[in-house]
């Protein structure tokens, strides 16, 4: 195929990007988006602060603009995200204990229910594990409601949208030898053994000099897949430029292609100037919307 989406579809996979509703009026942006990508993740518009700005008052206007774009170009949607320690609305940040637990579950039920049938996969829970060597859960108001908050969120999501794949999503879980990777692996293994509804694990894959593409990345993806879940690369960006960056993008693409249950790759933005990163050139298109060497490396690897 001559586009990322077409090339990925030849092996039954998708190729996606994060999309910001505020950029949909930019014709260069939407031109690349509709040409190249077969999956869309709202970059911020489905996060709890966006969808429930006041408790029990839901707001879907930004998200719906992206849903409409996806429909018009025939792309699917990854929902991101139902429960996270960041980008909580102010009212939620101030809650704790049983009240927070029930507010969180209500949020999951309402938002997943609102989009029932329209979402390919939901990142039900995002970034719940701590960095470093502890392998512990990240401390947060949600975690302090009890260790079972993650499985409770997954059960509520399944009840609200039985057809959506339900994912756990995190970063720094790419290196098989890291404690955080092992801790997430054990959680997924436990969920599968107890029948907690989980279908997929998302690897954000924000790579840079401090956190490069690990040499065992494919092994990590395969080991998770062997637990009986799909794996997806959900927020890919790789700092750098030129041949080095292109080689890293090729390595990541090849890793996904080598794992049967790696169902797709999503980059976290279209042009370098769309990146959430304050500086650098981590994406596949330059600021003018021109294809970079990294783009060609990915296309050729698909
Ligand atoms: C980022 C967005 O790209 C920014 O626009 C926003 O200001 C902060 O969040 N991990 C995630 C994403 O799961 O939701 C984050 O997105 C990037 C890191």
UniProtKB/TrEMBL annotation:
Q: Which residues form the GH10 domain?
A: 1-301
Which residues act catalytically here?
235 (nucleophile)
Q: Please, which domain of life does this record's source organism belong to?
A: Bacteria
Question: What protein family is recorded?
Answer: Belongs to the glycosyl hydrolase 10 (cellulase F) family.
The entry's protein name is: Beta-xylanase
């Amino acid at each position: 195929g001559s586009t990322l989406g077409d090339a990925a579809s030849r092996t039954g996979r998708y190729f996606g990007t994060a999309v910001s509703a505020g950029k949909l009026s930019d014709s260069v942006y939407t031109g690349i988006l509709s040409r190249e990508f077969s999956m869309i993740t709202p970059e911020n518009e489905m996060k709890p602060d966006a969808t429930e700005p006041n408790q029990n008052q839901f707001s879907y206007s930004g998200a719906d603009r992206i849903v409409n774009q996806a429909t018009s170009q025939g792309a699917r949607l990854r929902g991101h995200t139902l429960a996270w320690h960041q980008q909580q609305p102010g009212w939620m940040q101030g809650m704790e204990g049983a009240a927070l637990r029930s507010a969180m579950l209500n949020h999951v039920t309402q938002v997943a229910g609102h989009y029932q049938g329209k979402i390919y996969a939901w990142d039900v829970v995002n970034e719940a594990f701590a960095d470093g060597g502890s392998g512990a859960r990240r401390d947060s108001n949600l975690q302090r409601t009890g260790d079972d908050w993650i499985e409770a969120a997954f059960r509520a999501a399944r009840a609200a949208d039985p057809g959506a794949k339900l994912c756990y999503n995190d970063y720094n879980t790419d290196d098989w030898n890291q404690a955080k990777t092992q801790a997430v692996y054990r959680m997924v293994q436990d969920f599968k053994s107890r029948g907690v509804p989980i279908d997929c694990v998302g690897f954000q894959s924000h790579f840079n000099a401090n956190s490069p593409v690990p040499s065992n990345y494919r092994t990590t993806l395969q080991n998770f897949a062997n637990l009986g879940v799909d794996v997806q690369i959900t927020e890919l960006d790789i700092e750098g430029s030129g041949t080095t960056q292109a080689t890293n993008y090729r390595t990541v693409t090849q890793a996904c292609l080598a794992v049967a249950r790696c169902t797709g790759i999503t980059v976290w933005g279209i042009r370098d100037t769309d990146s959430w990163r304050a500086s650098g050139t981590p994406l596949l298109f330059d600021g003018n919307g021109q294809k970079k060497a990294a783009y060609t490396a990915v296309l050729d690897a698909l």
